[in-house]
Amino acid sequence: MVTKIQIAGKLKFYSKPYGRQWKWRYQVHGHMIEPKIKIPKGLENAKIIDPLHPETIPKIDLPKWTPPRRHPLLESFFPQLSIKDNPNYHETPIKMFDNSTKFHAGIDQVCLLTKTQPVKGIPSIITNSTHGQDLTSQDEMVKNYLKQSLAFNPTKQPCPSLKIPNDPKFVIGKQYGTPHKRQMFILLNNLIRLSNTNLFKRNHTSLLTREVLENCDLEAIVNRGGEYISIKRNVDFCLFSKTSLPTIVFGQDLEKTSAYEFINMYPIFPTIDLKDQHIYNLEKNCLIDNRSDLNGKIVQTIININDDDFTNEQDVSRLIMLLFGTAYAQANMMKLPVNQDGLLLKPLVVNGISVTNQRFNYATFQLNTLNFKDNKGIKNIVFYDDQGQNEIYMNRPTVDNLPYPTQKNIQRLALRNLQYNPEVFQKFLAYFSFGSK
Amino acid sequence: MLQNKISSVITKKSAALGRFINSSHTAEFTLYSALNQQSATKATNSVPIDWKKDVVVIPVQTSIEDLKRNHRLVKDGFYVSHRLYVEKIPEKYTTEPLPTRRTGGYDIETRERLYKRVGGGLPIYWHFVDFKRVGPKTGPPLVEKVIDIIKTRDRTSFLALVAHADIKRYILATQNMKVGDLIRTSGEIPRIPVKAFEGDAYPCGALPNGTTVHNIEPTPGYGAVFCRAAGSSAEIVNQINDRVIIKLPSGLELSLDKYCMVTVGQVSHATHKDEKLSHPVDTRDLGYRPRSGLWQRKDGYCGRKVHPPKPIKVVGTLEKEEINKIKYTFNNWSLTD
C-alpha cells in the first residue's frame, strides 16, 4: 500500500484514477535528465573524472545480503528465538558477575575471589597528586553544578515509580523530572570538565594524552581455581591514557602479602552470589571498548553511576570486583610479561570511583599476579577509602520534606537546605589527576 | 600496620618507578595467560582449591513435579490458595520470589463465584520453600550456613535463606535461629541416639524420646507436611521396633516410619497467635472483603442456632459449706437421730 507521504507532491488527488496518474508521473518525471557540465576556460583539454562515479570507485566485495525471513511487522505473530539458538550457547554454565550482584560477606568475599589483600585508606601518592593547587572558586562551582543537575535542568523524563517498602499500598502518580541517575550524569560531566581545568593550569599538554569515553563495554573471563568467572558491566565513564599509572606497592611490602590469610567461608563457596551464564566465548575473553581500537591506550580510572539500595560495604565490594576485571582485561590485552610463578614484572594499577545515590566511593587496585590457581604466594592489593563521610550533599530534596510538593518548590526551598561536603570533590580531583604530568 | 609502612615507601620510589613504566611501554609476546589456560584444561585432574575441600554437596531435591503434586494447576501456573495464584511455574527451583495474582473469590477457569468475602489485600510474593531435608546415608553430614532470615507475607513463620557450596534454598526458620549459624542434616540412624541441636534434621528414629520437632514427613522422601505453622512443635513420645510415635500439637498421635525426616526445635514467630489487628483496614490488607453494612433482621430463615449453655455466673461471695461431721456410733440406729 502506498502511504500518503510517498504520494505527497507527486500525484494530484481527485483528478485521474491512480493508475493513469502513475503513467503521467512516469512520462514527465520518470527519466533522469543528466545535468550538462560547464567546463571552465583553460581546462577544455583536461580529462575530467567524477570521483563518485560507480566506475571510478573501487569495488569492494560486500557480504552477501540475506533477505529477512518475513516482514518485520509480522515478527510478533511468530515465536521468538530461544537462547539455545545462539551460536555461543553452552550447556555448562559459568559464573557471572553483574552490576546487581550483592556479596553477602562483603569485601572479604571479593578479596577471596580476586586473590587480593584489602588495605584501608587512600595512599599518599594520590592525595598529593594535586600538589596543593586547588581551584580558587572550586566549591562555588560545584554548588552551581548541583543546582543545575538537581533542579534547573530543562529536560524532563518520566520518573521511575516510587516504592515504599513499609507502606506498599501508598500510590503516587506519575511525575516528570530528572531521574537521579541522570542528575549524577550531568554532575559528573561537569566535575570532569572542572578537574580538567586544574590540569590545564599546570601543564597545557597533559590533556592531549588523556581521553574520557562514555559507555564502554567491559568483559573479562577469569579462571579461578578451575572455575570460570565472567565480569560484565557497561562502564559510564572510562579515562584512557597512553601511560599506565605508577605502581604503589613494591619490594618488601609486596612480599608481605603472601602472609595474608583469607576468611574461611566453610561450607559456602565465594562464588555463591554470582549468576549462571550460558552464553559466552572463551576465545574472546577480554574486551574493554567495543567501538574503538585501543592501540596504545591504557585504562587509568573508571567512574560508575548506580541508583540502587546497596549498603556502603556492598558498594565497595562491587567496585573492587569491577576494578579487578578491568585490570585483568587490560593486562591480557597489553600482553604483559609474566614470571614463572605467574607474577607480573610490571604491576598494573587502576583507579575506580563509584557513585551510588549521592555517595562517592574510591578504590585503587594493583594487579600483581595472574596466577589464580591457588591462594598461595603474592596477592593483589586494593586500597579503599573507609574514612570520612563520602556524600557530596545531605538533605536531598524529596517530595516528603516539602510543604507543597511541586517542582518549583524544589527549586526555591529545598536547595537552601543542602549541606555541601567539600571533601568529596578534593578526593575526586586527586583521583582524576593522579598519573598526569 | 601495612598501611603506614606502605605510605612511607610510596613517597620515595614513586617518581623512579613511574619513569620506568612509561619508557618500557613496548609489549613482549610472552605467554601472558599460559598459566590460566593450563589450569583450565587440567581442571579435572588438578587438586581442588581450598574452599572446595571437605564440603559435602547435595543439590536441592524438590522438583517441579512435587510442586504440581501439591497444588491445583491452572494453564501456566498454580493455585497457592483460594485467594492467590501464581501465573507462571518456574522451570526449576529458585530462590527468587514470584509475583502472585488475586482470584477475588472467583474460579479462574470458569469465572464462577465461590467465596463471598475474598478481595483486595497487599501484594504478596510467593517463596519456594524446600521441605525436603535430605542428607547423606553414610559419612559426615551435610553442613549449611544461615545467610539471612526474612519475614514474608505468604507464610506465617519466618524463612531462613540457607546455603552450602553454590546452592541456596529457603527453609522454615526455627525460634532461636540466627544469621551465621551452621545447620547439619544426616540420613543415618546410629546405634546411640544423637544429641540434637536446634535446626538440625535427622530421621526420627535417630532422636531420643522427648525431643521437640517440627517439619514432619508422613512417609520417607515425601516432604514435610505436619507442624509448619508459626510456633508449632511436636514431641517424640516413644519408639517401638521400626515405628516412631509422635504427638502433634492437636493431640493426635502418629506412628511413622523411622526414616521419616524431622527437624529439631520449634517453628519461628511463636508470637504470631498473640498479634492483634489494630484497625479495621488491617483485615482488608489481609484480603478479607468487608461486609455489606446493611442491617438485617434475624428471621429464622436459616434456622436457629443451638449454642451450648453458658457457665453459671457467680454473684456475691459464696458461703463456705459445712464440713460433714462423721459421727462414730456403735449401731446403725443412732443415724436416725
Automatic annotation (TrEMBL), chain A:
Q: Which InterPro entries match?
A: mtLSU_mL37
**What PANTHER family does the record point to?**
LARGE RIBOSOMAL SUBUNIT PROTEIN ML37, MITOCHONDRIAL RIBOSOMAL PROTEIN L37
Gene Ontology cellular-component terms listed: mitochondrion
Stated name of the protein = 39S ribosomal mitochondrial
TrEMBL record, chain B:
| Regions that span the bilayer | none
Keyword Ribonucleoprotein on entry: yes
- Fetch the Pfam families from UniProt: Ribosomal_L2_C (PF03947), Ribosomal_L2_N (PF00181)
A GO BP term, please? mitochondrial translation
What residues does the Large ribosomal subunit protein uL2 RNA-binding domain cover?
100-185
Q: Could you state one GO cellular component term attached to this entry?
A: mitochondrial large ribosomal subunit
Q: Is this entry keyworded Ribonucleoprotein?
A: yes
Could you tell me the superkingdom of the organism this chain comes from?
Eukaryota
Q: Which residues form the Large ribosomal subunit protein uL2 C-terminal domain?
A: 196-318
**Alphabetically ordered keywords of this record:** Ribonucleoprotein, Ribosomal protein
Q: What's one GO MF term for it?
A: structural constituent of ribosome
Regarding protein family, the annotation reads: Belongs to the universal ribosomal protein uL2 family.
Designated name of the protein: 39S ribosomal mitochondrial
Origin species, per record, is Brachionus plicatilis (Marine rotifer)
